[in-house]
Amino acid sequence: MARLCVEGWAPEYGAAVEPDDALSPAEGAVEVDVEGRPWRPIPGRDDGLPVVAFVDGVRRIDARLVLDDPARGPIPGICASFGVGAVLWHRDERWSEVVEPAVERLALLLHGRLATLPALPPDLSFRAEAVPGDDPAGLVRSLHDAMRRAEAGLTERLAQSGTFVVADGPLYEYTPVAKVGYVKSHRRSYLPDDRAGIVGALGPGERTPLFTVGEGRFRRYSWYLRLARLPGGHSWTGVARGEAAAALGLEQAAALADRTAAVLPLVGSEPHRDPRAPQNLVPVAALERHLRHLLGDGGLVLRALRAAAMREEAA
Fold first, then answer.
1. Which of 145, 214, 257, 272 has the highest CB neighbour number within 10 Å of its CB?
2. 89 neighbors 116 (Cβ within 8 angstroms)
3. DSSP class of residue 7?
4. DSSP conformation class of 169
5. Helices (H) and strands (E) in the chain — how many of each?
6. DSSP assignment string, 202-269
7. How far is Cα 218 from Cα 28, in angstroms, rounded to an integer?
8. CA 183 – CA 240 distance, rounded (Å)
C-alpha cells in the first residue's frame, strides 16, 4: 500500500529523489546480471582500509555581469567562485585533515566574449572565460563544469597515489584506479521494474548486486547502498548510489562496492546536524564548510566588485 512521506531533506537542497524528472530512464545501456549473484541484498564488508579520501567542491555566484555592447545589446555574464578539496579520514588514528584546498574565481560572459574586469584587490583575481551561445543557463553550466574538472583532477591525483577516494557525485573520468563516485540524489532509474524492489529491501550496510551503465570507455559498474533507515522515511530514504570504472574489472569493483556499503554508513550524517542526512556524509559536510570559509564573505566580494566598477567609471 502506497503511503505519503514528508522528505527529510531541507527544501533548499532539492530532494534525495528529484521530483522534476525523478527516476526517468537511465541514459545508455544498463546490464543487471553482471555479478552473477542472486538479486537480493548483499552485506557490505569492511576490509579495514586505514585511510579514505573524500573529494568535493562548492560554488557560488558572486555577481551578475552585463556587457553593454551598443551594437548587440546587453550581454549577460557572472562572476563566480568555487572551491575544491579533499578530506583524508585516518580511521585507525580517528582524525581527519583537509588537503589540497583550492579556490578559483571566474568571470564568464555569453556570446563568446571575454570580460575585462576593473582592478580588484590582489586576493580577488577572476579569470575570464568566454561562454558560447546565448543561453544564460550556459553560464552556470560552465561554472559547474570547471568545478567538476577541478574535482576530477584532485580525485585522480589522490587515487593514482594509492589512496582510496570517494568523490562526491558521478564519476568524471573512467580510469582503472581505486575511486568511487558517490551519488546521493536520484534522477534516473537504473534498474528495471523487476529488480528495482531490491532497493527498498536494503538494510543499513547492505548493497545491491552490481550492474553496468553505459558503453565503451563510458561503461561503469554501479550499485545502490543504504546508509541508514530514518523514522518516517520512504523506501529509498538513506539510499545512495556508487559508481566505479569498468576498467577496474568485476572483482575489484565488487570489492569497492562491499567496502562502501560497510564503511560509508559509519560517516552518514544525522538529521539534527545536517539537512541532507544521512546521504551528505560527515567528512563531506566538514569539507564544504571549510571551502565556503575559503571563498570568503559573498557580500564583501560583491561590494568589492561594485566599488571597482564605480572607480573605473568615475576615472
1. 257
2. no
3. -
4. B
5. 5, 14
6. PPTTEEPPPEEESSGGG-EEEEEEE----TT--TTTTEEEEEEEGGG-HHHHHHHHHHHHHHGGGG--
7. 9
8. 6
Task: Of 131, 94, 128, 126, give the one whose Cα is nearest residue 110.
Answer: 131
Among 300, 304, 179, which residue's Cα sits nearest to residue 248? Answer: 179
- Specify the pLDDT at position 308: 85
CA 248, 249, 254, 255 dihedral sign is: negative
pLDDT of residue 29: 82
CA 131 – CA 229 distance, rounded (Å): 43
Are 226 and 206 a contacting pair, CB within 8 Å?
Answer: yes
Q: Quick one: pLDDT at residue 55?
A: 98
- Count CA atoms closer than 13 A to 285's CA, side-chain side: 16
Q: Scan for cell 569498468, then name that residue.
A: 246
Q: How far apart are the first and last CA of the chain?
A: 71
Q: What is the pLDDT of residue 23?
A: 47
Q: What angle do CA 190, 192, 194 make, to 5 degrees?
A: 140
Task: List C-alpha distances in Å: 295 to 62, 86, 94, 120, 156.
Answer: 10, 15, 28, 16, 23
Mean pLDDT in runs of 10 for the chain (315 residues)?
Answer: 46 49 59 93 97 97 89 89 98 93 96 90 90 94 97 97 96 94 88 92 98 92 96 89 96 98 96 87 96 95 88 75
Report CA torsion sign: 41, 211, 225, 3.
negative
Within 8 A by CB and 6+ apart from 219, the residues are 174, 212, 213, 246
Q: State the pLDDT at residue 72.
A: 82
What is residue 191's predicted lDDT score, i.e. its pLDDT? Answer: 92
Classify residue 90 by its DSSP letter: E
Q: In terms of C-beta density within 10 A (0-12 exposed, 13-18 middle, 19 or more buried), how is residue 137 classed?
A: exposed
Convert 99-143 into a string of H (helix), E (strand) and C (coil).
EEEEEEEEEEECCCCCCCCCCCCCCCCCEEEECCCCCCHHHHHHH
Residue in the structure block whose three cell numbers are 556570446: 111
Which residues fall within 8 angstroms of residue 40, CB to CB, at 6 or more apart? 198, 201
What pLDDT sits at residue 17?
A: 53
